[in-house]
Design a protein that fits this description.
- The chain folds into two domains: 5-114, Response regulator (Rossmann fold), CATH 3.40.50; 122-217, Winged helix-like DNA-binding domain superfamily/Winged helix DNA-binding domain (Arc Repressor Mutant, subunit A).
- Helix content is 32%, strand content 24%.
- The chain has seven helices and twelve strands.
- It has helices at residues 20-25, 36-46, 63-72, 104-111, 148-159, 167-175, 184-197; strands spanning 5-10, 29-33, 50-54, 78-82, 96-99, 122-125, 128-131, 136-139, 142-145, 164-166, 207-210, 214-217.
- The strands form three sheets. A five-stranded parallel sheet has the order 2-1-3-4-5, sandwiched between helices.
- α1 (20-25) links the parallel β1 (5-10) and β2.
- The longest helix has 14 residues, at 184-197.
């Protein structure tokens, strides 16, 4: 089970050992980029639970990058790894500033309180997060309420992510019926799901139509 998604910004020539392998072993999903501009470019696609900026590896205080991230995704927790000689400790642009050196245990102790509580009812697939109890979906910073049927349909697609799902199979599994003579109802529900998760429902990035067969959730 993936614990959380971290956007990790670290220069290519970091002097200190990387914490990334250790965090991945702990079950965290980490998307790494090497510049602030790369972080901004992928921010909505990654839709992280937290951003970690290794400012010490970039010979910067990280203040400008922090403020840029905050302006694009308000409410995103940000942790900065700082060089003591170039630290922004006390600045409100970051939630936490850790000055080198420190252990991975200390890093985890500061990351965990910034993360949303783990929920047994939360299903993830790529940037899509589905709360099956509250019938709520979040994708790329957008949230939407779903009907129970839409939740069931999306959960099924997420369970078979990147697989081509035949229309008849989806209809039987989500509507719990063997009658599949008219699957237009499925098409309408797919359209509603696209309204919820796609930036441009007419040109879907995630929920693809496989002509003559069915649908595929590409994450």
């Amino acid at each position: 089970m993936v614990k959380a998604r971290i956007l990790w910004v670290e220069g290519k020539r970091a002097d200190s050992p990387s914490f990334i392998p250790g965090l991945r072993k702990k079950g965290y999903s980490i998307e790494t980029v090497s510049t602030g501009s790369e972080a901004l470019a992928c921010l909505l696609d990654v839709d992280p639970d937290i951003a970690v900026l290794n400012a010490a590896s970039m010979r910067t205080s990280g203040k400008r990058i922090c403020r840029s991230l905050r302006s694009k995704m308000d409410g995103l927790p940000i942790l900065v790894i700082a060089d003591p000689q170039n630290s922004i400790a006390g600045d409100e642009c970051a939630n936490v500033v850790l000055e080198l050196p420190f252990t991975i245990r200390k890093l985890l102790n500061r990351i965990v309180p910034l993360l949303p509580p783990e929920e047994e009812n939360l299903v993830r697939a790529g940037p899509i997060r589905l709360d099956v109890e509250r019938n709520n979906v979040r994708c790329q910073g957008r949230e939407a309420r779903l009907t129970p049927r839409l939740t069931s349909l999306l959960r099924t697609l997420m369970a078979h992510r990147d697989e081509v799902m035949e229309r008849e199979h989806l209809f039987r599994e989500v509507w719990n019926t063997e009658y599949t003579g008219d699957t237009r109802t499925l098409d309408v529900h797919i359209s509603w799901l696209r309204q919820a998760i796609e930036e441009d429902p007419r040109n879907p990035k995630f929920l693809k139509t496989i002509r003559g067969v069915g649908y595929r959730l590409a994450v």
